[in-house]
TrEMBL record:
It comes from Natronobacillus azotifigens. Homotetramer. Belongs to the glutaminase family. The gene is glsA. NCBIfam families: Gln_ase (TIGR03814). This is Glutaminase. Its EC number is 3.5.1.2.
Amino acid sequence: MLCETNKELDELVEEARKYTKDGQVADYIPALGKADPYDLSIAINYPDGRCVSAGDVQKRFTLQSTSKVISLALVLMDRGYDEVFEHVGMEPTGDPFNSIAKLEKMTPAKPLNPMINAGALVVTHMIKGNSVQERFDRLLSFIQQLANDASIGFSEEIAQSELETADLNRALCYFLKQHNRLNEEVEDLLNLYTKQCAIEMNCLHLARIGMVFAMDGMDPITSKQLMPKEVARICKTFMVTCGMYNASGEFAIKVGIPAKSGVAGGIMGAVPGKFGIGIFGPALDDKGNSIAGMKLLEMLSNDYQLSMF
Ligand code: DON
């Protein structure tokens, strides 16, 4: 994909890069610990096909939680609104992404939203297909369409590294299974979920996907409606209320853009009706969001008045 480097963006990246020193790369998934904490890149994809960027935008990273918005879109198309929200709620938690605390307090047990791990596991469980492989292939192919690149794949190394260390997610799954939210083998679901999280791309791809969400599910460059407008609307709403976990309120005030983070350092932004943003900055703050990526979005939003509020 062609993308012009942009001087103003470059200056913002260099300014925001200073904040990387206050963050740390995730290492609870051991293979993610190899990332370079000083990396920071951004791409902005416009509906007319223009793209501007700064930083090393070719660097690939895994989607991690950024994938949760996309699996939600697929599952809403697979199963419809009523079935999906019978099993997962719509409320922010104010807790970390991997917390089990509120799950136990809900009767019946139902994850509060699809962006926390418990909710995302339930969503991934609902991806239709006859096998883990078929469900993964459907999700991957949807992501390839959204990013308009059939070469997108996943990192076996990172998927395996997460699978071997995912005991907290395993615990969430067993809890959910006990409460009849899951009716498949926990290891099968974790296998699918860790592959989903290990889908790999660069921030040019992520910006393109953000642009499709920003344009209500339509890819104006290929003239394909890749998801119904209603599905894109629901996903963007979750990005605002829960996309940055227990930093979502502050992010809405300071940035005001629907966005979703991942622990590999990605942030996907969707500025409604305008453009998509892809950011990669693997040094994270204590809530698991890209520390310099958040700062970069804040500066961008202030400079160009991007807040939707
Ligand atoms: O399940 C996990 O813990 C990871 N695969 C994804 C978590 C994540 O990206 C949280 N985001 N900031």
